[in-house]
Design goal:
Elements (H helix, E strand, L loop, with lengths): L2 E12 L2 E12 L3 E5 L6 H8 L7 E6 L2 E2 L4 H7 E4 L11 H11 L4 H14 L15 H12 L6 E5 L7 H18 L2 E6 L2 H5 L3 E6 L2 E6 L1 H6 L4 E7 L2 H12 L4 E3 L2 E6 L2 H12 L3 E7 L3 H9 L14
Parallel strand pairs: 3-8, 3-9, 6-7, 7-8
Antiparallel strand pairs: 1-2, 1-4, 4-5, 9-10, 11-13, 11-14, 12-13
Helix pairs in contact: 3-5, 4-5, 5-6
Amino acid sequence: MDTIVEVESLRRAFGARLALDDVSFRVAAGECFAMLGPNGGGKTTLFRILTTMLTPTSGRALIAGADVQSESAAVRRAIGVVFQSPGLDPYLTVGENMHHGGRLYGLGGPSLAARIDEMLAGLGVADRARDLVKTLSGGLRRRVELAKCLLHRPSLLILDEPSTGLDPAARREFWNLLQRVRAESGVTILLTTHFMEEADRCDRVGILDRGRLVACDAPAALKCRIGGDCVTVWCDEPDAMRRRLSAELNCQASVVDGVVRIDSDVAGDLAARILATFGREVRAVTIGRPTLEDVFMNETGRRFDAGEGKPEAA
């Protein structure tokens, strides 16, 4: 299968701090690939480099065979971009926004008008063409943004946190629409997200933390790394509990943000033994199938939200 995105040893420094540290990955044509990570993990820096808005400190990134740094014009022709912040003029109509978006890519005349009609109809917003964007709901605005960035038939669609600000119903609706667009047009999708459920819907997921790519595989394959179910123990002295679990029950545990975690193939039996052995020293014990958050904790030793709120660049 052809490779449409190729990132090799990508680094981006802001002063003494590395926002991206030796990041390498590939995205195959037609794939849906998510870059998952907490705020401050490096996702926005990567997005800005791939969309030609920021130059890397070292390494390289190719999109459809074109270098994002030396062949930026070719890259921009190959991509459609949905930004995290609204990319529509709220005081223009939907049709006017579409027209100006098409003109930026050199489209015009009857062919642009036909393409606008096709995209708006395909994304279910043809009846809103004369409405001001500011009158639309968040979900409808996302539809229009998606229609606008597909006008020039890009081979790669790059989305930065596309569901931010949408309620759960609008988020599901947008994702169903996105998958339909992919199936019908064959466009490759690369997105950044901090929503686990979004990453779970993708073919492959890269986990980006503190500028480093700590894991990259299909969601199911990443979860298989955990090795069994996850037993979580809440108690007042987690470090002491971890040592006692090792000494008295011969199980390897870790402490992540004040919570004891054990990966086990016999989670039900282990949970019962913990309660029987430690009694009221344990406030609660839960069992769950591995999730992408468990994968993140397994790879980094921290909960997923531990790095949120830290800016990527000054």
